[in-house]
Amino acid sequence: MAELTYRDALRSALIEEMDHDRRVVLIGEDIGVYQGTFRVTADLLKRYGPGRVIDTPISELGFVGAAIGMAMLGLRPVVEVMTWNFSLLAMDQIVNNAAKLRYFSGGQVNVPMVIRGPNGAGVQLSAQHSQSLEATYAHFPGLYVVAPATPAEAKGLLRTAIRSDDPVIFLENAALYGMKGEVPDSDFALPFGKAAVARSGRDVTVVAYSRMVFAALTAAEQLAAEGIEAEVINLRCLRPLDTATIVESVSRTHRAVVVQEQWKPFGAAAEIAMRIYEDAFDQLDAPVERVTGADVPMPYARTLEVRAVPHEADIVAAVKKTLGKD
Prior knowledge:
5-stranded mixed β-sheet, Rossmann fold, alpha/beta, 326 residues
């Protein structure tokens, strides 16, 4: 296996899929000449030309709408939003068109497109650029919602996303772009809706996704030093959600903690916790705990930003609470 950064794993998937299928085109702000804000599209304009790597004006509503039209006509556009916060300007196109056109057409029209870019906080970009929008998009039927944690997942899931005949919301995290990890050299793809057991354990199930997986793994190591073995589930996808893997784990550990970077109210953790209550209530020995971000707009000051997102200490405390050791 090669060791790649998260950024280069994404870029590798784009190159391989663009080489494999000429219908794959890239579209977004500053992805060509500027080579992408986070360098995921570095040198791709030179490699494929302006017909396949398309720099756009600053208009998310316009270029997401254009990409939907491309997809309806047989191309496979990959749209980069400079940050998922800017996708709010294209919400009508995403949730009222991309997500619904197959349904509206009785299955006659597919929308094979990917919208990708950084989601969440952690790089000091302040309140308008640091929101976690996974629960917003996972609310709408017709969209896949993907949140890879590792470089291998980033590549394997992006390949699946590009080959999908339905629109995919592909949520990266800016704090992960420089992280390195082993990535298979082969033409591999990861299925949607299949979580991974990132760490086995017997005492409690910790469910996380995106960069919160690493906070959960660090917390699990700290807990292990105290004799508490936590099982960590890496969701990878929020829609579809792999409820079966979560329930199977909780049925063995009898306790659960769900971790998200989002604000607590109406978040993904609430939905996951409810799935556990619906399908594994009789297996629980304690209420499901949620670990979430602070319910405030994200501060710019680094010291405050650090305090506004979940950390391993918060996960450790939640685990101990489920065990009655708080």
